[in-house]
Amino acid sequence: MSDFNQQIIEEFRANGGTVQRFGSSLVLLHTTGAKSGEPRLSPVMGIAQPDGSWLVAASKAGAPSNPAWYANLVAHPEAAIEAATDDGVATVEVTAAPLEGEERDAGWAQFVARSPGFADYEAKAGGRVIPVVKLSPR
Fold first, then answer.
1. Which of 60, 94, 65 is nearest to 77 (CA)?
2. Core vs surface per residue 13-43: b (16+ CB within 10 A) or e
3. Residues 83 and 92 sit within 8 Å (Cβ to Cβ)
4. Are 24 and 17 in contact (CB under 8 A)?
5. C-alpha dihedral (69, 111, 51, 40), degrees to nearest 10
6. What is d(CA 108, CA 75) in angstroms, rounded to the nearest whole number?
7. What is the per-residue pLDDT across 100-137, written as a single tens digit (0 to 9) for each?
8. pLDDT of 33-90, one tens digit each?
9. pLDDT at site 86
10. Based on C-alpha coordinates, what's the Rg of the chain?
11. Cα angle at 134 between 78 and 62, to 5 degrees?
12. What is the DSSP secondary structure assignment for residue 138, as one 8-state letter?
C-alpha cells in the first residue's frame, strides 16, 4: 500500500470518517486479493444510495486499466467497507455487483456531479469505460 493511501486510512479512522482533502466522501474498501487471496484495503470515493447501498467507481484517476481492487471485487464479491456515520465509523459487510448499461451510466453521473474531476478521469481513460460497482449490505 502506498504511503499516501496509508495516511488517508489513518486520517479517516482518526477523524470519524472525515479526511481533510476529501471530506466524508470516502469509504475504506476491504477486499480479498484476486490472485493472492490476501486481505486488501483501499480508500475510495463512495456515494451512499437511498436503498442503503453505496456506489464506488473504478476510475484509477483515468488510467487505461482498472484498479486492482476492482479485479478483487469481481473475483470475490463478498467484501466490507468502513463508512462514516453520525456516530463515527461503521464497518458494513457488502456484496459487490458491477453495474451495466443505463444503471452504470446513472451511477457514473452521480460521481461526475459530486466531483467534476471524474469527467477528466473519463477523458483520460482512453476509451476505457470506468466501472461503477454497487455495494449492497448483506
1. 94
2. eeeebebeeeebbbbbbbbbebeeeeebebb
3. yes
4. yes
5. 10
6. 22
7. 999 999 999 999 999 989 999 999 999 999 999 999 99
8. 999 999 999 999 999 999 999 999 999 999 999 999 999 999 999 999 999 988 889 9
9. 85
10. 14
11. 105
12. -
For 85, list phi and psi in degrees, rounded to 5. -130, 175
Q: Are 81 and 94 a contacting pair, CB within 8 Å?
A: yes
Q: How high is the pLDDT of residue 1?
A: 62
SS3 category, 1: coil
- Residue length, the chain? 138
- 40 contact partners, CB below 8 Å, separation of at least 6: 30, 31, 32, 33, 68, 69, 72
* Residue located via cell numbers 444503471: 103
**Residue with cell string 495516511:** 7
Transcribe 29-75 into DSSP letters. Answer: EEEE-TTT--EEEEEEEEEE-TTS-EEEE--GGG-SS--HHHHHHHH
